[in-house]
Amino acid sequence: MKNRLTLKQIKTLIRILVSLAAFIAVFAADKAVGLAGVFQGTNAWLFPFALYLAIYVVIGYDVLWRAARNILHGQIFDENFLMCFATLGAFALAIYRGVTGMEIEGFDEACAVLLFYQVGEFFQDYATCRSRRSISGLMDLRPDYANVLRDGVAVKTAPEEVAVGDIIVINPGEKVPLDGIAEEGETSFDTKALTGESLPRYVKSGDPVISGSVNIDSRITVRVEKEFYDSTVSRILDLVENAASEKSKAENFITKFAKYYTPAVVAIALLLAVIPGAVTGEWSVWVYRALSFLVVSCPCALVISIPLSFFAGIGAASRYGILIKGSNYLERFNNAGIFVFDKTGTLTKGNFALAKVETVSGVSEREILCLAATAESGSSHPIARSVLEAYGKEAKTGYTHTNRAGSGVIASKDGDVIACGNEKLMEECGIPFTPCSGVGTPVYVAENGIYKGYLLILDEVKPESREVITELKRMGAKSFMLTGDNHAIAANVAAETGIDGYTASLLPGDKVAKVEEMLQNKPEKEALCFVGDGINDAPVLMRSDIGIAMGGVGSDAAIEAADIVLMHDDLKGIPLARRIAKKTMSVVYQNIIFSVVVKLAILILSAVGLANMWVAVFGDVGVAVMAILNAMRVNGKYATR
Amino acid sequence: MKKVFRIENIDCANCAAKLERRILKVDGVIKASVNFIAQRLTLEAEDERFDKVLEEVTKTAKKTEPDCIISLR
Predict the structure, then answer these.
(1) Any chain B CB within 8 A of the CB of A352?
(2) Measuring CA to CA, which residue among A165, A149, A148 is closest to residue A157?
(3) Given pLDDT bands bounded at 50, 70 and 90, which one contains residue B73?
(4) Partner B contacted by A9 (CB < 8 A)
(5) Of A337, A348, A345, which is closest to residue A546 (Cα–Cα)?
(6) What's the pTM value of the predicted model, to 2 decimals?
(7) Shortest CB distance from A308 goes to which of B37, B63, B64?
(8) Which of B21, B10, B34, B17 is CA-nearest to residue A121?
(9) C-alpha distance from A637 to closest chain B C-alpha (Å)
(10) Cβ atoms of residues A622 and A597 within 8 Å
(11) How far is CA B12 from CA A108, A308, B28, in A?
(12) How far is CA A383 from CA A401, A413, A426, A439, A481, in A?
């Protein structure tokens, strides 16, 4: 299915093959017996001329038609026109030779030029089409319908028309059309197209279900939580489709080059025909060389191969669950020199676990846990959640919670005040406390100004962190960690991951300032990447050269603020994306240099008469084909290591 | 206002670049980008007369690339 030709392409292919066969037959006959010798007399040239002209018209009528039409619209540097001009000019020269009684030649050339030009065009069209399809594999995510339960009956509805709160049924093999919560049933979902993660995701009643995943096992009902346009799948598709509008420097360079290339070549061709022609009097020689110029005047090979490479790179990344928002980011990412990591949830799992409870004498563990849980019950901070989890019961309600950013929380009710947070909070409140010496995040708890004890909370380092940091180092990039936690924890994580440096005890606002400072001190050429989980760090993601958000599925803020989104929570996507960027950029540079050099070589060789029109058209089509094939290489497989 | 359109039947990448340059010259267009491979036209124009500008852009496109079709996705 994937590589099928369109009807239009099949028609063109048939036309090319028929013309090619006819051309080879006529050409062979011409070379073997000399078609000009079949008839005698001064008009003998008419016979081969008529044969070649017939083939010319069959293969090139559309080019001729477009050329004529575009001239009427005032476009003289149109590639169709230039190609027609070159080939008709070659015909004219051959007729001139025929009429003046010189040796008959040149008809075959005009015909061949147009034939190979069409071959090149066909190949370009095919390659573009293929790469379009390969990236739109991701577009297959788009759900076509939703089965909405209406009075107990599933009704097929357009996903756009489903409202929040509706119950939808997802049968095995169907795509999830909208984000929601599983109601009844349990099943496994395939999220490979969405995240690149090949392990199926098990979902039971009450778990979130993400649109774009495919139901593998059994029927499940889902309560819709988000409208279609806010659902994950729509947002991702939007992002991928719009990725195209941000263009890289390489692309801008090449379109600018193309803008001047064609007029320049045409101008030189004109000069080449007129000046040496007038000086030497050998008009046909110089006009012929000028016509060869026009054959290579179309910059299409160059112009197509660059964006095609980027497109292939973005497409390849998307297959591994890495969304890159534009080719400019891919280009810049190749120069990534500093990776700044957020600690919690990025280098570490972010699933804090209660490691130790220390109380002052006379206070039980349950008591302090109850106090902490009551104070933290209003917060969604991972630490707060882990405290609540450890407590395991409903916290006392009715308290007024005051959040102290970067230090903790104070809860009060009827004169009862619970302070729960780090040492800063204790110092602020003027509560004497015993500092904790263990590694981890201590949460000090005090009630009505009296210190009760602390809870020690520990976050685990992700297993792949060390490997990823090492690989980035091997790629020549520095790594740095920013955290709001204290030095002891930061040093511990830094030692475990092998990261180059860190700054600890940062308030949320300090992170932006720190990144600003690093942006100023880094070399101009290098890009600073910030890697975060998208929670609370949107401003830093936006401020850095390239913001990388992890675990994009389900996090709207991350998808919005970041330039590169890792759909699943795996740091290994970073070195992988870097490898893709590197390969893309090397292919881009190869294509630019290769095409420009070959084109210039053909121009110079034709100008001095070493290359005829055959060489010119072969070279031109050859460059296009090779540049495209090279670009397709980017869309290959990458080791995930 | 920024809108993304589907643009089909453009002959070649160079034609797309040419088309983009012409669209940029249309009065009222703030930003425009034609992506040949993705077949997307991203158009940013003044809010009050977006439709008018779009009409003009479509005309320009038809003139540059007579076969092209611009449609909302």
Answers:
(1) no
(2) A148
(3) low
(4) no
(5) A337
(6) 0.78
(7) B37
(8) B10
(9) 21
(10) no
(11) 27, 12, 26
(12) 16, 22, 17, 15, 19
d(Cα A468, Cα A428) in Å, to the nearest integer?
Answer: 39
Query: What is the domain range of residue A451?
Result: 353-458
CB A463 within 8 A of CB A569: no
Rounded distance between C-alpha atoms, residue A33 and residue A447, angstroms: 110
| Residue-number span of the structural domain to which B7 is assigned | 2-72
In chain A, how many domains are there? 5
**Helix, strand or coil, per DSSP, at residue A234:** helix
Q: Which of A342, A459, A537, A545 is catalytic?
A: A342
CB–CB contact A132 B38 (8 Å) = yes
- Do residue A476 and residue A344 come from a single domain? yes
**Contact map slice: A 280-319 vs B, CB within 8 A:** 298-300, 303-304, 307-308, 311
Q: From residue A33, how far is each of A88, A462, A475 by CA, in Å? A: 25, 78, 64
Q: For chain A, which ranges sit under pLDDT 50? A: 1-2
Taking alpha carbons only, the member of A367, A403, A397, A365 closest to residue A383 is: A403
CA distance B49 to chain A (A): 22
Residues 6+ apart with CB under 8 A from A517: none
Are residues A121 and A3 located together in one domain of the fold? yes
pLDDT, tens digit, 9 for 90 and up, residues A607-626: 888 888 888 888 888 888 88
Q: Are residue A499 and residue A609 in the same domain, yes or no?
A: no
| Each residue's pLDDT tens digit, A494-553 | 998 999 999 988 887 788 889 999 999 988 889 999 998 766 778 888 889 999 988 766
Question: Which residue from A69, A241, A304 is facing B38, i.e. has the nearest CB?
Answer: A241
Provide the number of CB pairs (under 8 Å) joining chain A to chain B: 64
- Is the reported ipTM for this assembly greater than 0.85? no
Length reported for chain B:
73
